[in-house]
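ESCALATION

Customer reports they have been waiting on this structure for their group meeting. Please prioritize. Original submission:
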Amino acid sequence: MYPEVEAYCIFITTSLNVNVISDFRARRFMEYYNTVGTEYIIGMKILPMQTSELKKILEFDIKYPEIYRILDKAYNSTEPPKEWYEKNIVKETSCWQI
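Update from on-call: job pushed to the front of the queue and completed.
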């Protein structure tokens, strides 16, 4: 466990159910313990994303600093899960169009 490291994990799937989105959003407030249960961090930076949004990131060769900016903004936003995904992931990745 490295609480000082700033990184995000992306959960990728072909189709996101709103309850899956809600589950991952709630994880930012949950305790996550080490393997022996003696230490923990609060909050996991796991964000859900559909393959359609990942495809845009890959297709337009978006670099890590921009991906990190989007993920960080999304992680720190406060919208309810359904609105959160549409506003912070779909809308942000839709700006890359031909």
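Sent to customer with the following note: DSSP finds four helices and four strands in the chain.
Escalation resolved.
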